[in-house]
TrEMBL record:
Protein name (database record): Phosphoglucomutase-1
Record-level GO cellular component terms: cytosol
Alphabetized UniProt keyword annotations: Magnesium, Metal-binding, Phosphoprotein
GO molecular function: magnesium ion binding; phosphoglucomutase activity
Organism: Salmo salar
Domain Alpha-D-phosphohexomutase alpha/beta/alpha residue range list: 19-161, 198-303, 311-424
Protein family membership: Belongs to the phosphohexose mutase family.
Keyword Nucleus applies: no
Pfam family, one: PGM1_C_vert_fung
């Protein structure tokens, strides 16, 4: 066996112009990473080079992914390049798999300088699917704009990358592996860890596991159905919900992580988790939930398939926040939601006199508020919910939060939601996603729409649909000033706000890998007890008509309807 130190090479490369990270890192089709020479190496080197050399030397970093196709290939390259770039230790999930919430947890536990997350979240996997790479910083959360901008600038001028091509790591064995490198005084260390246990231990310190075990396996236990959608959450659900909290093994389905997610779209919504919805409609189960590919998103369902809108979900958790022991100890510092999310959380914040922050889309904005001690609980309409225990949204945390509320209140999901509406009023909310729209057409539509709504003549304009009359009170392109550091984020979404508080919002999403995704959000508050239980699509139909008429979205994009409605 050759025990000589491993060779560190510096190899030439050429830059690519398209490696600007979006709100969730760099996402492209798998074939882009596979077919473009050094495409992954360039971006990984740009990440390492963005970290000051003194901070990087001998440091600890975390690596994990959602198990999608190309995950292990990418990890091998990331490990080889980490060693060559002076990183002292890598902590990697067993088999290279680690949920995004667990990555955040492990970064914080090991006091790492950051981590690399390999995921395209809820986007499809497999050879023909998507792949993504994201850098999280020392707080465990997504890198702020200053960091991602630096990574992008480096990627545009990169000329070489460093690598130890002969280094081979065993991802299949829980172990600590050491490698001697030439011209390095200390060996490079790779730790393969059980990320489920680190994450589970964190949850034990947040929730009352005894009460949850009684709820799930006691004398009067409820029946649950959890769908991991063949993503990363399978091992976490099995270990925590089934083995530790006592829910039957068959209450967790699709729990084997697959490179192509079983050929399905790992997105926990009514469209892509339709099998779970259908199962829940049968009435056999009291509580249902689904998770996305990397485990940071969740969908909550009640008996008979009762759907909990994500905007309502975070509001209900806020209204019942002291059902969770963690908040009994820490108190509540503040609430936050992304701008497109319905104002349901605002109603709870107002009633409880707790500060409410409205941020652009992207969890990094929440992380900044958390680091400053201003925020405890937050959520996004895109099925993301979380708290200040980590710096990512957290699907399983949200499920345990809901189960804690069920254990405390001893009511069904539907009854809890309906009680909430009767107490706080209801925000009817829907989102129309138009996926893989021609990028140029989408940009032109948004530019023309902005020019129109910012004209003086648009203010006060009235729109009549049937018996409903809406008058424009305000229209703008949302701008956010961070209360922590004063940074200003512009162009975060077009808003039309009516005199009754109803909102129409248009955004171009940054989480896809091809074309553009145009998102249209409709939010309307209702406090009339005779109206709060009506069908959202019926209640919001007039505003949807206005939204499509004003934007000419179907005509401008060539689409006859949305890809997904939630």
């Amino acid at each position: 066996m050759d025990d000589s130190p491993l060779q560190v090479l510096t190899l030439p490369t050429a830059p690519y112009p398209d490696q600007r990270p979006g709100t969730s890192g760099l996402r492209k089709k798998v074939f882009v990473f596979q077919s473009k020479r050094n495409y992954l190496q360039n971006f990984v080197q740009s990440i390492y080079s963005s970290i000051d050399l003194l901070d990087r030397q001998g440091s600890t970093m975390v690596v994990g992914g959602d198990g999608r196709y190309f995950n292990q290939t990418a990890i091998e390259i990331i490990v080889q390049m980490a060693a060559a770039n002076g990183v002292g230790r890598l902590v990697i999930g067993h088999h290279g798999i680690m949920s995004t919430p667990a990555v955040s947890c492990v970064i914080r536990k090991y006091k790492a300088i950051g981590g690399i997350v390999l995921t395209a979240s809820h986007n499809p996997g497999g050879r023909e699917g998507d792949f993504g790479i994201k850098f999280n910083t020392a707080n465990g959360g997504p890198a702020q704009d200053a960091v991602t901008n630096r990574i992008f600038q480096i990627s545009r001028t990169i000329e070489e990358y460093a690598i130890c091509p002969e280094l081979r790591v065993d991802l299949a064995t829980l172990s600590k592996q050491k490698f001697d490198l030439e011209n390095k005084f200390k060996p490079f260390t790779v730790e393969i860890v059980d990320s489920v246990e680190s994450y589970a231990n964190m949850l034990r310190n947040i929730f009352d596991f005894a009460a949850l075990k009684e709820l799930l396996s006691g004398e009067n236990h409820i029946k649950i159905q959890l769908d991991a959608m063949h993503g990363v959450m399978g091992p976490y659900v099995k270990r925590i919900l089934c083995e530790e909290l006592g829910s039957p093994a068959n209450s967790a389905i699709n729990c084997v992580p697959l490179q192509d997610f079983g050929g399905q779209h790992p997105d926990p919504n009514l469209t892509y988790a339709a099998d779970l919805v259908e199962t829940m409609r049968g009435g056999q189960y009291d509580f249902g939930a689904a998770f996305d590919g990397d485990g940071d998103r969740n969908m909550i369902l009640g008996k008979h398939g009762f759907f909990v809108n994500p905007s309502d979900s975070v509001a209900v958790i806020a209204a019942n926040v002291f059902s969770i022991p963690y908040f009994q100890h820490t108190g509540v510092r503040g609430y936050a939601r992304s701008m497109p999310t319905s104002a349901a959380l605002d109603n709870v914040a107002r009633a409880t006199k707790i500060e409410l922050y409205e941020t652009p889309t992207g969890w990094k904005f929440f992380g900044n508020l958390m680091d400053a001690g201003k925020l405890s609980l937050c959520g996004e309409e895109s099925f993301g919910t979380g708290a200040d225990h980590i710096r990512e949204k957290d699907g399983l945390w949200a499920v345990l939060a809901w189960l804690s509320i069920l254990a405390t209140r001893k009511q069904s999901v539907e009854d809890i939601i309906k009680d909430h509406w009767q107490t706080f009023g209801r925000n009817f909310f829907t989102k129309y996603d138009y996926e893989e729209v021609d990028l140029d057409a989408a940009i032109q539509m948004m530019e023309d729409l902005e020019l129109m709504i910012l004209e003086k003549a648009f203010m006060g304009q009235r729109f009549a649909v049937g018996e409903k009359l809406y008058q424009v009170e305000k229209a703008d392109n949302f701008e956010y000033t961070d209360p922590v550091d004063g940074r200003i984020c512009r162009n975060q979404g077009l808003r039309i706000i009516f005199t009754d508080g109803s909102r129409i919002i248009y955004r171009l999403s940054g989480t896809g890998s091809m074309g553009a995704t145009v998102r249209v959000y409709i939010d309307s508050y209702e406090k009339d007890p005779d109206k709060i239980f009506r069908d959202p699509q019926v209640m919001l139909a007039p505003l949807v008509t206005i939204a499509l008429k004003v934007s000419q979205l179907h005509e401008r994009t060539g689409r006859s309807g949305p890809s997904v409605i939630t």
